[in-house]
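Board notes (copied after class):
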Amino acid sequence: MIHAAMLTAMGLGMLAWRPCRDLEARAPRAAVSMLLLSTAAVWVGSLGLVVEVITDAAGPAGTLVAACGTVLRDLLTGGLGWWQSSLLLAWVVLLPGRGLWCVANDVIGSRRLLRRVRKAPAVTPDVEPPAAGAARRPRRLAVLVDDLGTPAVTVGLLNPVVAVDAAFWADADPTERSVVLAHEQSHQRGRHGVVDAATRLLVAGLAPLPFVRHAGDCVRRHLEALADDAAVRRHDPRLVGVTLGQVALAARPGHGLGASGDAVWRVQRLIAPSPTASWRDHAILGASTATMAGTLVLGAVDTAGAVPLLLTPSFCPL
């Protein structure tokens, strides 16, 4: 009970206080890791609290795994009351189901857009044609889609595709095209769509809890910051900030990750004079991330000792 309560409190505290709030813009990768680990800690800790509260009536059950096994045994043998079964059902089925529902809607929308994108013409790099006899096909940078609703978007999870609005591509100059493509290709290479889907799954079920509902927006914002940094490695930060600021004034993509959204925060971190990430910034973020990861690992090691008990035939006499 104490371990689960500490894990839940630590996760909520990290999401609320976020000791690296002022430093997140300088080290977005560590910020994403900390936010995801904190949300996972809330899930594990709160589930442990629910399970251990249910098993309190039958006496201490030991570790979390042993408590889960006890609850499962009592559920199968009819030993749980109606309120205990309802509480367990809400936390084990309804809340994760809410997260799965949100992710499923996004995946369905992404697949619809992907079917439309696959039929669109490809954007290839402006390079010299291959030598005679070479059968190499030009590398596809993106696809052009009419009436996309946003200048550019990366859609898909395992095999993401960069889609660019045809009207934007026709009006943009070469620099704007390069900045937007560098941003979207960072989403594509980093499989940021998978991270975004995992965040939606974790956050949607815990949305009623304080401080958790905004974690998804924070993760998405820092995924955009990671892509902005990839564009900065090719172009001047001020140029990237101005270009992405103009792009971000357009509509947000309905599905996937795009260069629009959170314009003020993103442009400010690129244009406004601010010190670059120092070793202290990374140390604070790294310590926060390591604390959450270590807590989860210790919890896993602590509960692993109950696995042999669950495997004994006498544990669940059905």
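Comment from the instructor: Confidence is low (pLDDT under 50) at residues 126-138. The longest strand covers residues 161-165.
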